[in-house]
């Protein structure tokens, strides 16, 4: 098959799972055209991300005049479809909510309409038989409008929590109705999509996990001595719950003199988190490692006893998969798709928003014998390899796109 992948901003450092997915489809023999509205080039540091950026067509880099000319050239030959798509764009724009990613007002949706016409044209020029968008936000809007204007059949992957926070503003029902297939990355995610579309459409909503490459995770490093040494990985943003983790560390630290945490990531709340660490007197216990590339993340996991995920809202974090593949137990909040992967055999689940219970889980980890922790790590590897092998998941995707095995 000749497939197009559409992502609003691609690649990003946090989108390695998309890059792995595309590579797996290409290993299956499919041709993939990478389309994105814009690049995050200035923020990219990983060589693999920079190489992916060079392989990607960034629509807005062609300039406004060329984009409009391309779009109008497509629309002139399809005036009825273009007008119908414009009406749909305006209707979606009227539902948009300020501050919600991928929504906005009618003017923004007119821009999506122009982008969609260009995307439809590029798909036609390249002989694309299927268009797949990642995230149910503006990339899925463009895919929907492109289809309305004679573009290829489309599907899209929803991740959460953004899509589930604003289903009406994102017109999720319209996008599901128009799609050939819709992908959720967990059963929980599928349940949320089923809320916003009639039962007649439920059959087109499938679960396909984000994946890892098992071959990239060799025999796990031995667990570090002492500790426990925890690692938390993610963007320093409100939904990740790192402020609560600092509270839990403060509660656990008095009885665990060797407890340490490495926090990998960066973001808008870095200053706030630094202040919370200072106020809790945990400057010698918590290390802010900043953003790390894939090699840096693997190194941080190798030095850790366990991953800790204190999130308030999630989809199903890839970092949990990577930690389990690295042979590390997991402490995580019991939200969204996380309990589908993290079971008592591989870690501890706690209620979201409860610092005391999170501290108790840290204490349980510290009291668990080293041999037991190692066995949990091996069970974690077995579980994640069985459920999240990217080549296996890519075959599921290709079947949804229309590939005949």
What is this structure's SSE topology?
Elements: E1 2-9, H1 16-27, E2 31-38, H2 47-55, E3 56-58, H3 64-76, H4 79-95, H5 106-125, E4 130-134, H6 138-148, E5 153-158, H7 162-165, H8 172-178, E6 181-184, H9 187-194, E7 205-207, E8 229-233, H10 242-252, E9 260-264, H11 270-279, E10 286-290, H12 294-302, E11 306-309, H13 318-325, E12 330-333, H14 338-341, E13 347-350, H15 355-367, H16 370-387, H17 390-401
Helix pairs in contact: 1-17, 3-5, 4-5, 4-6, 5-6, 10-15, 13-16
Q: CATH homologous superfamily of the largest domain - what is it?
A: Glycogen Phosphorylase B
CATH topology description of the largest domain: Rossmann fold
- How would you write the strand order of the largest sheet? 3-2-1-4-5-6-7
At CATH's second level, what is the architecture of the largest domain?
Answer: 3-Layer(aba) Sandwich
Radius of gyration from the alpha-carbon trace, in angstroms: 22 Å
Compute the separation of the termini in Å.
12 Å
Instruction: Specify the biggest β-sheet.
Output: 7 strands, parallel
Order of helices and strands: EHEHEHHHEHEHHEHEEHEHEHEHEHEHHH
Structural class: alpha/beta
User: DSSP helix count?
Assistant: 17
What is the 3D shape? elongated
Protein name: Glycosyltransferase family 4 protein
Pfam family, one: Glyco_transf_4
GO molecular function, one term: glycosyltransferase activity
């Amino acid at each position: 098959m000749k497939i197009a992948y559409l992502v609003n901003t691609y690649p990003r450092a946090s989108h390695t799972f998309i890059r792995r997915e595309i590579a797996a489809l290409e290993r299956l023999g499919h041709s993939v055209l990478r389309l994105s509205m814009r690049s995050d080039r200035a923020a990219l540091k990983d060589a693999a991300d920079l190489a992916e950026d060079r392989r990607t067509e960034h629509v807005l880099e062609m300039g406004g005049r060329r984009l409009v000319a391309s779009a109008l050239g497509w629309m002139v030959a399809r005036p009825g479809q273009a007008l119908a798509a414009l009406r749909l764009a305006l209707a979606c724009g009227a539902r948009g909510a300020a501050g919600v990613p991928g929504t906005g007002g009618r003017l923004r949706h007119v821009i999506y309409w122009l982008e969609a016409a260009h995307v439809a044209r590029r798909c036609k020029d390249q002989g694309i038989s299927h268009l797949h968008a990642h995230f149910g936000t503006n990339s899925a809007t463009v895919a929907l409008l492109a289809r309305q204007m004679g573009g290829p059949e489309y599907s899209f992957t929803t991740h959460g929590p953004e899509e589930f926070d604003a289903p009406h503003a994102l017109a999720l029902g319209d996008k599901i109705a128009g799609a050939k297939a819709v992908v959720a990355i967990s059963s929980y995610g599928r349940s949320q999509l089923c809320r916003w579309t009639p039962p007649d459409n439920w059959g087109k909503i499938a679960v396909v996990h984000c994946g890892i490459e098992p071959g990239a995770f060799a025999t796990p490093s031995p667990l570090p001595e002492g500790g426990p040494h925890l690692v938390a990985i993610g963007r320093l943003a409100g939904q990740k719950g790192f402020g609560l983790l600092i509270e839990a560390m403060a509660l656990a630290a008095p009885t665990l003199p060797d407890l340490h945490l490495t926090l990998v990531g960066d973001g808008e709340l870095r200053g706030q988190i630094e202040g919370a660490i200072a106020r809790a007197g945990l400057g010698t216990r918590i290390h802010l490692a900043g953003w790390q590339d894939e090699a840096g993340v693997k190194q941080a996991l190798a030095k850790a006893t366990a991953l800790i995920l204190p999130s308030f809202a999630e989809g199903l974090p890839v970092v949990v998969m990577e930690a389990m593949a690295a042979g590390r137990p997991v402490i995580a909040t019991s939200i969204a798709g996380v309990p589908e992967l993290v079971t008592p055999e591989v870690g501890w689940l706690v209620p979201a928003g409860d610092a005391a219970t999170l501290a108790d889980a840290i204490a349980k980890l510290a009291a668990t014998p080293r041999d037991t922790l190692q066995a949990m790590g091996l069970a974690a590897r077995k579980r994640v390899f069985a459920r999240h092998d990217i080549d296996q998941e890519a075959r599921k995707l290709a079947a949804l796109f229309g590939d005949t095995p």
